[in-house]
Every structure is written in structure tokens, then in C-alpha cells.
Amino acid sequence: MANIKSAQKRIRVAAKRQARNKHIKSTTKTAIKKLNVAVGAGDTEHTNKTLMQAISAIDKAVSKGVYHKNTAARKKSRLTKMVNKAVV
User: Fold this and answer.
1) I need a labelling partner for 67 at 20 to 30 A (CA). Which of 21, 31, 53, 84 fits?
2) Which domains can be identified in the chain, with CATH numbers?
3) Mean pLDDT for all residues in the chain
């Protein structure tokens, strides 16, 4: 444990940010997993709705600084390609 007051605060702040980032990443991954299940089921309407939810979760993660914008673009692109391939 740190002895300096500012170092102790940095530890507390880092733990708080880590918990927040973990929650956001977990929520995003859950949305992506739901999309994978919807694609596997083959329900087009549900798949499109779930895709929009997954994209929204990714965009929120970017706005909060959890994902880089290029990482988010790559994830969204891959998900969209997956859905388009499954729907056709």
C-alpha cells in the first residue's frame, strides 16, 4: 500500500475507473452475445433489433472512453457483416 496521500488517492481513483470500465465492457459483450444468439436463431426482425442495441452499446462505450473509436468501428463493421450474411 502506498504511503503518500496522492498515491493513495490514485489507487482509489484507478479502482473506481476499473470497475466502471469493466461494467461497460461487460454490458457491451453481453449485447454482442445476444446478437450472436439471435443470428443463430435466424429471426430477422429480432436480429436487426439486437444489432441496433449492440451498436448502441459499443457507441456508448466509445463516448465513455472505454473503447477507441477505430476499435468500435471494427466491431460494428464485423457485426453488421455477420448479420447481413445471415439475413441473406
Assistant:
1) 84
2) 5-87 (1.20.58.110)
3) 95
Please answer whether residues 37 and 48 qualify as being in contact, where contact means their C-beta atoms are separated by less than 8 angstroms.
Answer: no
The answer to whether 36 and 50 have CB atoms below 8 angstroms apart is no
pTM of the complete model: 0.87
Cell readout for 10 is 490514485
- Distance (Å, whole) CA 47 – CA 41: 9
Distance CA 31, CA 57 (A): 7
Q: Are 50 and 80 in contact (CB under 8 A)?
A: no
Distances (CA, A) of 29 to 3, 23, 53, 58: 37, 10, 11, 9
Q: In this structure, what DSSP letter does residue 4 have?
A: S
* Residue carrying the nine cell digits 502506498: 2
Radius of gyration of the chain (CA): 17
CB 31 within 8 A of CB 53: yes
pLDDT at 88 over 90: no
